[in-house]
Amino acid sequence: MSAFFDQVYQATRQIPCGCVASYGQVAAAAGRPRAARFVGYALHANPHPGTGPDAVPCHRVVFKDGSLAPGFAFGGPDAQRRLLEAEGVSFRPDGRVDMGRCAVVCFRPPSEQEE
What we know:
Elements: H1 3-13, E1 21-22, H2 23-29, H3 36-44, E2 61-62, H4 76-86, H5 99-102
Parallel strand pairs: 1-2
Organism: Berryella wangjianweii
Catalytic activity: a 6-O-methyl-2'-deoxyguanosine in DNA + L-cysteinyl-[protein] = S-methyl-L-cysteinyl-[protein] + a 2'-deoxyguanosine in DNA; a 4-O-methyl-thymidine in DNA + L-cysteinyl-[protein] = a thymidine in DNA + S-methyl-L-cysteinyl-[protein]
Protein name: MGMT family protein
C-alpha cells in the first residue's frame, strides 16, 4: 500500500459521524490537492470499511456537489445513502447530500495526523 493511500485513510478517519467530505477535500488533506481521482482508488481498496474504531469510513466521501459515488465498492450508492442517513446526514430533494449542512470544513494537515 502506498504512503498516499495511508494518508487518504488517515484523512478519511477524521470525517465525523454525520458529516461528509468531497474526494477533493480528502485529497487536499492527504497532501495532494489535485489527486481526487486517486482518493477514489484508495477508498476502493479500503482494507477497513465501516464505522468501528479502526475503520476507514469511506461511505462519508462524496463528490463535491454532494452526489454519491455510483461505484461505491461496498454495496452501491443505495448502501452508501443508507449508511449516511443512519448517521444523520441530510439529503436534498434531488438525492444529493446537503453539503451546506453536512460537509467537513477542516482537516488536520498530514504532518499532524496520527502515524
